[in-house]
Specification:
It is built from 14 helices and 5 strands. With about 400 residues, it is mainly alpha-helical. Helix 2 packs parallel to helix 3 and helix 3 crosses helix 4.
């Protein structure tokens, strides 16, 4: 096999640690500031490395059954798509059976290409391009999703989020070797539904434009319109959309929000799958609500019969009772009318108490129903777990 990369892969050489790559006979060539096809920038080693294309041409006949590419971090965004096409054309010209390309890391990345032509926002777009190219070239170009695999592993990277530490070298060599294993075994690496990457303030690019346009179509106004910049106005619009749609109000576009906006598609195999425990919880809550509704109905029926019962009581005993217990009855009437007293007859205790009970129970049922709806929404968001379109 062969591995061709820029400084994000050069750490393997700098640490002189090839790890699990030694399962294979391999050719390794990674240089700082390398670009894929356009002339490379000046590197930290004070050289202008040959491009990935020129390297492939120099090593023609030695690149093996699989060529692994970890390049693009120094490429201007405007040329990346054509550069991928050029590399694939060269691989086919040499008769290399398979090409694997690692997605560019986008999470917690502060690195910028030395001439400021590429950064994390460009890498999101580059990853989208990689998946488009993989679809165009079929299984000849396989995408290994290093970006998602390493998203939360801050210990694998230097402060800029892309260059490898010693732990990162161990991780990437194992990862690449495992991906090659799968390809040689006839497995398909490219995810049909690539993972979503969180969008937040400071991000920009086509994916932000898509999200802004989707919110505007949903009737959410954004100061400045769909300008492709995730600033305070977009964050406020996202919060408004999330609030109106029962989502967690964060001001960032996670996979649940992206799905609701229609800019991201969940894997159908997992989107409708709800964990059994959550299904049981929802069923229990639905049964509880049903029981509470039945109780309210019974109480309402009881209240409906009580006024007639009071009206049917004999007048004389009622009069005697009132005369014998005047202070108590006066207190009840005062309570029915309010402490300030007032003219007119009050409701009897036999009517007041059930009414208060029914009102309290109805309020409890209402609050419980809101809690159930919230839990269902949360369960749906949790069950959307293994997400996969468009790695950004």
């Amino acid at each position: 096999i062969s591995l061709i990369g820029d400084s994000t892969l050069s750490g393997v050489r700098w640490y002189d640690d090839y790890g699990d790559l030694e399962r294979y006979n391999f050719v390794f060539d990674a240089e700082s500031c390398r670009r894929t096809v356009e002339q490379s920038c000046w590197s930290r080693e004070d050289i202008r490395a040959e491009t990935a294309l020129v390297t492939m041409q120099r090593l023609s006949g030695e690149l093996g059954e699989v060529t692994v590419v970890m390049s693009g971090y120094n490429d201007p965004g405007y040329s990346f798509a054509s550069s991928v096409d050029t590399i694939i054309a060269e691989a086919k010209r040499q008769g290399i059976p398979q090409v694997i390309w690692l997605t560019l890391r986008t999470t917690k990345v502060s690195y910028e290409e030395p001439t400021h032509l590429a950064n994390a926002n460009v890498y999101r777009e580059d990853n989208r391009i990689l998946y488009e190219k993989a679809e165009a070239y079929g299984d000849y170009l396989q995408i290994a999703d290093w970006s998602t695999y390493a998203a939360e592993e801050t210990g694998w990277f230097e402060y800029d989020g892309v260059h490898l530490t010693a732990d990162g070298v161990d991780a990437v060599t194992t990862y690449i070797a495992d991906q090659v294993d799968e390809v040689l075994a006839g497995e398909r690496l490219t995810a049909e539904y690539p993972a979503w990457v969180l969008l937040e303030s400071g991000d920009s690019g086509e994916v932000v434009v898509s999200a802004q346009e989707a919110m505007i179509e949903e009737g959410v106004s954004i100061d400045g319109g769909a300008d492709g910049v995730y600033g305070a106005a977009t964050a406020a619009a996202v919060e408004s959309f999330q609030r109106d749609n029962g989502l967690d109000v964060t001001g960032t576009i996670d996979d649940a929000t992206a799905t609701a906006l229609g800019v991201y598609t969940l894997d159908p195999a997992t989107a409708t799958t709800q964990p059994a425990a959550e299904q049981a919880t929802v069923a229990d809550e639905q049964a509880t609500v049903a029981d509470e509704q039945a109780t309210v109905a019974d109480e309402q029926a009881t209240v409906a019969t009580e006024p007639a019962t009071v009206a049917d009581e004999p007048a004389a005993p009622l009069a005697r009772e009132t005369a014998q217990d005047a202070p108590t009855q006066a207190a009840v009437n005062d309570a029915a009318r309010g402490e300030g007293g007032g003219d007119g007859g009050g409701l009897s205790r036999s009517v007041i108490v059930p009414l208060l009970a029914v009102g309290a129970l109805a309020l409890a049922v209402f609050l419980r129903r809101r809690q159930v709806v919230a839990r269902r929404a949360q369960a749906r968001r949790r069950s959307s777990g293994a997400r996969r379109p468009f790695t950004l």
